[in-house]
Amino acid sequence: MLYKNVWKTLSRKWMQLLAIAIIIVMSSLTYTMMFYGISGIEVPTEEYLEESNQEDFAIDMLNRVTEEELREPAVATLAETGAFTLADIKQADAEVFNRLIASRIAAVEQEMPDATIELRDLKAITYTFDDTEHRGMIVKESDTINRSYLEAGDRPSANDEIALNKKYAEENGIDIRDTIDIGKPFTVSGFVLFPDYTLPLFDDNFFNLDPGSQTLLLMTDESFETFVGQESFRLSGVTDQPIKTDLELPFVVSVMETENIIRSGAIYSEISSGKAMALGLSLFIVSIAVIIVAILISNMLEAERGQIGLLKAIGYDRRQIASPYLVLILIFAFFMLIIGYFLGLYFANPLKELYLDFYLLPSITIAQSPLVFVTAVFAPLLFFALVAGAVIYKIMGESALALLSPRDNVSLNRLSRFVSRLLKRASGKTKFKYLYAVKSTGSFLIFFLGILFSTILIVFALMMNGAVDRMTVGGLNEAVYEYEAYTDGAPVLEEGQEPFLTYPFAFVEDKLITLKGLDFDNTLFPLRNEDGDALTLEPDGLVVSSSLALKLGLDVGEDIDVALDGDTLTYPIIGIADEFSGDFAYLPRATLSELLTDGSTDDLFNGIYATERPNESDYPTILSRQGLIDQSESINQYMNFMMNVLIGGASLIAFSILFVLTALTVEKNYYVISLLKVMGYQKQEVRSMILNSYFIYALISALLSIPIALLTLRIIIVVFAEDYGLVLPLEFEWIYIVYTLGAVVLLFFMSTFVSRRKIDQIPLQEVLKTYQE
């Protein structure tokens, strides 16, 4: 009989239970989906990285000779002919190059005697595939560290064979034994992975991550040496001892542990933070559900105090009365958690594939785990049982006489007192309106936290809008040129070509940067600040990129020291270019040319911007501006998807919380609403007095969350800049406040629609009925 009565009571609250069900399902779904999705790449990744002997640290080094190395006669002789970069020296005299690298490795091993060091040799290329510009990174096979891993097929054994990434092959319809032309034709022998490139990052542009238009490549050593491309070098190391990251060696730019290198270590952060986030989000969401369920049960029991008191008076004990409430709530929560678990299992594979759209990793079929099932279902269920049991135990603990007697008015809580002091000069109607919403501290707290959490997610999503564009293409959308090309010679400039000069070996505050010389009358690549104003180059001043300014905390008017070729020059910053694709400092080309040639010429250049594709015999490396923009589309689509997920999830949680709390408020105050109608208040006035105070509190909560969101984002930006050297160009615009408040307003009125209709339906006779009882 008791079970039947409680079932009827709960069935009348099906709409509130449905909203609570959404929150419970989201909790189990979030944890299951993220845990299984991440585990689907974690297990095979750990095996793959161990089998391939992933580097423990990497040493970025100067790709040119140092002053000490120039003391060797053979190196000095080559430098006099213009061969001062490692790539130039390797091409001119392989024996001298090998001695240079051996001496550098020996110097590092002297500082870290327990480490094994190996050269990492790479070549960056661009080529046309299906009328689209693609990029490749040819990686020379290692002996012991960062060995290649075959997902399918074989390693190249002939000079006309090549292995590439499986994801790239799938995106472009390439199968093993197909022929691909990357400047010359190769037969695909297999699909390869490299443990130091779990993200396909080939340059400083951290978010050019389109695996459909860029790939890692493996050739035979002979093919690698004869293939033309931009060659670069670094050192890889493994050790079981602490890593010395502050090596004071003239050729060392930086020493970074793998966990802090975004091209390889980001996967560690993704796995660890993903699991922590899954558990944290799940606990947060289920906590909201548990508290709302506790409020629902409390309201139900308070509404039935008389009946419960009567049952106790005729001999029913606490356990008999409490069991129906607790059992039915737990059955309801159990089935919702089960639904969430299987929905999470269903979405886990798409999440795993989403990771593998960008991470170059092996994967396995997702298998269910009893531990995940227990954590996703029974852990929250236990939480439900404890909280619901505590609420029921507290109310059931009162005596039959106390339950049958009307409850005395509860004294004001601290929040009510605070609001009361703020409204001491307000009218009675206004005081009633705004004090009623804060009468229950627990209800108001969950309301505030729900709005806070949802608004923070909405602000995050809005600030992500356009961030990827700023990082990937930067000023390319404003540029006029179509091709950026590099040369080792001095070809004759043609119409529609403008020269530039790059020097990628300068230092500012011990940070390696690229000095870039542009002509005063440059029109194809104009520099602009974040307001869109044109920047003018000056011989005695520097324009720096936004990414460099953010990393080093630079501002216009500051003086900075620039070290190049053993000299240190001081320049004031005359402008900050809206450019996030690398760490650049801009000078007039004539000025930089004179600096690099000791004043012998002001006309040096090593690249051009062009409106038409230049001759490949003069410019072996050619980059298409449109190709770079197209490569950013993949990550843009991903970020837009994430933005929609954040906004959708935030809206669903906020809607559910507002719906349940406002519905409970109306149900709890039938008598008050009826009394207000008897006193002559119109429907609109009653709605305003009962519900609209929540509207004001929702707007206040949203406004308070915006600075919290900005502070959180600032911490994230600093952490990424310090740990990974990655600047996230998230921008906050004042219009976002309007968008955020608009979203909260829309959610509020959508979620309170049913409650407003219920207010209209409450009859005046309710007050007489309650009075008679």
Automatic annotation (TrEMBL):
The keyword Membrane is annotated on this UniProt entry: yes
Keyword line: Cell membrane, Membrane, Transmembrane, Transmembrane helix
Domain ABC3 transporter permease C-terminal: 281-398, 645-759
Membrane topology: Multi-pass membrane protein
Main location: membrane
Organism domain of life: Bacteria
Keyword Phosphoprotein attached: no
A Pfam family per the record: FtsX
Family matches, as InterPro entries: ABC3_permease_C, Membrane_comp_ABC_pdt
Protein's recorded name: FtsX-like permease family protein
Native source species: Exiguobacterium profundum
UniProt lineage: Bacteria, Bacillati, Bacillota, Bacilli, Bacillales
